Amino acid sequence: MKSTRRASRRAEAETQDLSKFPSENPNPVLRIARDGTLLYINEAGRSLLPQWHLEVSHASPPVLRDPVFQSMGTGTTQEVDLEHGERVYSFFVAPIVAARYANLYGRDITDRRQAEVALRDSRNMLQTVLDLIPSAVFWKDRDSIYLGGNRSWLEATGLKSSEGVVGKSDYDLPWKKEQADSFREHDRRVIESGIPEYDIIEPYLRGDGTHAWAKTTKVPLRDAEGNVVGVLGSYEDITERQLAEERMRTFSHEIIAAREEERRLVSSALHHDVGSLAVGVSAHLNAIEGDLRSGKPGEALKWTKRTRRLFNESVARLKEVAVQLRPPELDVLGLCAALRQHFSQVTKHGRTRIHFREILGRRRMSGDTATTLFRIAQETLTNAITHGEAKHVNVFLSASKKEVKLTVRDNGKGFSPSGQTGQATSRMGLRVMKEMAAASGGGFKIHSRRGKGTTVRVSLPYETAALRPGDVTVPKETVARGETTRSAGRGSRPRKGSGA
Asked: What is the pLDDT of residues 29-69, one digit of tens each?
């Protein structure tokens, strides 16, 4: 009862207030009964809302009657936005349940609505622009709480929408705690100092659980007064770049190691072989000198012949060392001749049978391509014999209009490429051969199984060069444990028994 009386008194007070100031109010003021009848409307309401045809003691239109019914039914106030022609009005509905009516206080919010629409369109446009940026972009408040991010950032974090990240911190995202701590520390420095930080290289965990590297930039966000209210960040995924740099560092180390190994071998050959021969020549010359002084020309002649033999051996050994470093055939006669010479040297002291076949015709590749293919063939053969213990190796060289292909197949022990690719199995190793092919714009593939041998395939862009004398007229021979396959250009056929 007391509450009913209090409600009645409030209704009477409001009625008195309405009778005092609604007529002076520039905004619409209405009173609608519980049954929808219009009880009151001020002059502003009549002039501003003509399309609703509002008349006291008549039924109000549904657009006003429905929110009144809702508020009267729940006993709660509400605010509704209603369109009237080209204008938009916001009505505050205040139910007076005990008095069985509701007061409606309206105000024109057209300008505000238009501003909101313009702001929303502007934000949508900005979001669209940000989503087209390949770099990941995000923004946070002063407490490092996320306020949004672009599509690239959402994809990196594994989130589906920008709304899904609003209100979250770095601890709520897939980062590890130490990563989240690092991110927030960068935020704190930028927010407190107001100074941007550029090119921050840091690891992070992608939404799919893979590890990656990012180069991040963070700048302070400021309000109209210049106060720092948050931080804007953007980062570029540089994982591939980091991996490439790591591969290049490894490649450089392996190249240096390969060069040092070559120098060691040359030094050993010069010291032990050529050096020993030189000492022998010197001793023979001393003997010749002694015989000549003693009047023994016949003995001196014998020592002279021995000295000549030692000298010839020294020259041959020096040539052998030079060929190991770079066969002269590669520069003078081309890749095929250089490969035949190398295979001949390999089979001279070994038991491995090498069958070489080439289909190049009269075409000639660039010097860089030839060098790369020769080094890869040389290293692959060394691996097959030394590590694979292969007894038979097939080498096939062919060319199309755009590329030249080298295939080396052996019957050795084989291995598991997944466990060996990253390890050096010779001076340069499989990785170095792969990098050499990649550096020439080509591809490198290896297939191997334990007990099934190994196959290496290399393809490089074919850069033609002018044909030099001797490229085709020189007979082409393939050494295979004393057997020879001879071809003289196009249309040649291997002799029977020359291997597969």
From this structure: 999 999 999 999 999 999 999 999 999 999 999 999 999 99
DSSP state, 389? -
Dihedrals φ, ψ of 467, to 5°?
Answer: -75, 130
Q: Phi-psi category of 29—alpha, beta or left, where left has phi over 0 and alpha has psi -120 to 50?
A: beta
Q: How far, in Å, CA of 32 to CA of 103, rounded?
A: 7
Dihedral, 410, 412, 416, 420 alpha carbons, nearest 10: -80
| Distance in angstroms (rounded) separating the CA atoms of residues 274 and 280 | 10
Q: Are residues 139 and 277 in the same domain?
A: no
CATH assignment of the domain containing 99:
3.30.450.20
Say which amino acid occupies 341.
Q
Residue type, 339: L
- On whether both 481 and 346 belong to a single domain, the answer is yes
Shared domain for 376 and 469, answered yes or no, is yes
DSSP 184-207: HHHHHHHHHH---EEEEEEEEE-T
Strand 38-41: give its sheet, edge to edge: 38-41, 29-33, 101-108, 87-96, 78-84
Q: Tokens for 36?
A: 């929808």
Split at pLDDT 50, 70, 90, the class of 143 is: very high
For 157, the 3-state DSSP assignment is helix
Query: C-alpha distances in angstroms, 17 versus 26, 94, 139, 328?
Result: 15, 14, 49, 112
